[in-house]
Design brief:
The protein has 222 residues and is mainly alpha-helical. It has 7 helices and 2 strands. The longest helix is centred in the first third of the chain and has 32 residues. InterPro entries: DUF4616.
Length: 222
């Protein structure tokens, strides 16, 4: 029981952190959408190359021809990792000549942090946290699919207005469980969810299930 309780605490902590990252991402996306369309050229170039630079950093680091490898066991400020970053900066400057050097450096640091995080989670003592994060990520993916699928069956303007308040965090937690020796499907709705939104979620779910049943019978008839 103590081990199960500890796993539950780890899972809840991991989910909270994932939710925080999601909220931060949504806020950043909203800020991007609210930016004026006409921006200085260097800012547009910086954003446009960001994903491309990040991928280039990854490809350069995993290349067999590149002997310069980060050491994820140590910090970014140590000489070896600083040397690797300097090498990457010089290599990528020629490829992304019009990109902001600070953007390239930021991508290099982000990639190192990713390697270090993976290394830390790979340690035996982090197995419970690793499993909790994996479970939390799967749960969050399921919630996002649930949000997306329900969004497709919203019908009236009133429903659309209410559904605009729906987020991934407000979707129900669902999981398989064994109760009295029998497999069951447990649904836990967020306690802080608006009752009207909960009613709408139930209605949208009924529509989805009805559509699935109709599609099944139509396929069987064929």
């Amino acid at each position: 029981m103590e081990k199960q309780a500890a796993n539950t605490v780890l899972l809840e902590d991991a989910i909270q952190r994932l939710c925080a990252h999601e909220r931060k991402f949504d806020e950043q996306r909203l800020q991007e959408e609210q930016r004026p369309r006409e921006e200085p050229l260097h800012k547009r170039i910086k954003r446009a190359h960001n994903v491309g630079i990040a991928e280039a950093v990854r490809r350069l680091h995993i290349s067999e021809n590149d002997p310069h490898k980060y050491d994820p066991q140590t910090g970014i400020s140590l000489p070896r990792n600083q040397a690797v970053m300097t090498y990457q900066l010089e290599e990528l400057k020629s490829t992304f000549a019009d990109a902001d050097p600070e953007c390239i450096q930021a991508c290099c640091k982000t990639y190192f942090e990713t390697l270090r995080r993976k290394y830390n989670l790979s340690q035996p003592e982090k197995s419970q946290l690793r499993d909790a994060i994996k479970t939390g990520a799967k749960n969050r993916q399921r919630k996002r699919r649930l949000l997306d699928s329900r969004s497709k069956v919203v019908q009236t303007d009133a429903e659309r207005e209410l559904w605009q308040t729906a987020t991934v965090e407000l979707m129900s937690d669902e999981e398989d469980a064994i109760v009295d020796g029998r497999p069951v499907w447990i649904v836990r709705s967020p306690s802080h969810r608006n009752p009207q939104l909960s009613e709408l979620c139930e209605e949208l779910q009924r529509r989805l299930e009805a559509d699935s049943a109709l599609h099944y019978f139509a396929s069987s008839a064929c």
